[in-house]
Write the structure tokens for this entry.
Amino acid sequence: MYFSKWLLDSRKPIDPYQLHKKIWQLFPDKADEERSFLFRVEKTGQRCTQCILVQSACLPQSASNELLLLKGPKEVHFELKSGGRYRFMLCANPTKRINDKDGKAKNQGKVRVPLIDEAETVAWLKRQFEGSAEIDAVELIQKNLIHFRKSNKDKNHFGKIQTVTFLGMLTVIDSELLIGKIVKGIGPAKAFGCGLVTLAKI
């Protein structure tokens, strides 16, 4: 697994889905395969600049004048032990499914909506780590409503998602299961900068 940090220097604002497409250009040999990377926007500066942390299964290659390498890539081998305690950070899209009043067949009568209540949001987080780690403490440090545009042939689809940034401490229960979750990412909306977990040993 590789970690790298990039600076997006764009002349105009770019939403997370468009950013996702630009990051995919760092893996030109994997264009037709499933996504094998996660990313998180860590800082947004002036003139539409964004500092981006990328976790990838493959070594990224600089392929865009807009994405400038700041740090890495660094190869990391996760060495977690059961009982180990870590600080963690995660930007995620906590959601639940409710009945869809329009009854859209493709959603099997369900639609995904964001969790608003803090207790429900924390409970959602704990379920994501169930069996792999115990959440000892957690703080919701930021909530963002993100708007995006997806192009499909000649049509544009506009949407929005609610993201939550978690900061906390956890204790490892099953190291292999936890590593699998870290590699895969936590929750939905990974194409919008959600799901990447970073750990720091206490």
